[in-house]
């Protein structure tokens, strides 16, 4: 269930075995076994890059909608927000200040609002340009999200992360975020 849960919360993202091991705390052999089972029923695609195998959900698989609905039904508000944001094309990064029930979403140039139910969270949507400008000009404004908050999506390969780190922020990852 832990492996399936991670995959379902961010279904468009490819994962490799060590990411799953680190995130779930399960032994690598258990991760391999579960990924093999899910691949054998064609719920996952497997793609090799060098010595690393990446796994990604087949969102067109007939079981996908029902399995995702079951996972989300048992998920908490933060995980439901993460799941909703993960499938939206314009979303690049998302940060959560759970104590204040606020989220900050960074998008490619796009809308000021997103077509999701944010649950109990107040969601601010900023373009990448707006976020980077505030990071340079008013970094204290971002403290609740980047110092006390958590990274909701784990997309640390985004170029914006270099700027966040250069500004001295070390953002914690949310629970079960690879």
Can you walk me through this structure?
The chain is an alpha/beta fold. Helix content is 39%, strand content 21%. It has eight helices and eight strands, in the order H-E-H-H-E-E-H-H-E-E-E-H-H-E-H-E. The strands form two sheets. Strands 6-5-4-7-8 form a five-stranded mixed sheet. Strand 7, helix 8 (160-166) and strand 8 form a beta-alpha-beta unit. The protein is globular and about 50 Å long.
Question: What descriptors fit this protein?
Answer:
single chain; 178 residues; alpha/beta; Arc Repressor Mutant, subunit A; 2 domains; 5-stranded mixed beta sheet; 3-stranded antiparallel beta sheet; 8 helices; 8 strands; 21% strand
Overview in brief:
The protein is of the alpha/beta class and about 180 residues long.
Task: Break the fold down into its secondary structure elements and pairings.
Elements: H1 2-9, E1 15-16, H2 17-24, H3 28-40, E2 44-49, E3 52-57, H4 64-73, H5 77-86, E4 91-97, E5 102-107, E6 122-127, H6 128-137, H7 143-146, E7 150-151, H8 160-166, E8 172-173
Parallel strand pairs: 5-6, 7-8
Antiparallel strand pairs: 1-3, 2-3, 4-5, 4-7
Helix pairs in contact: 1-4, 2-3
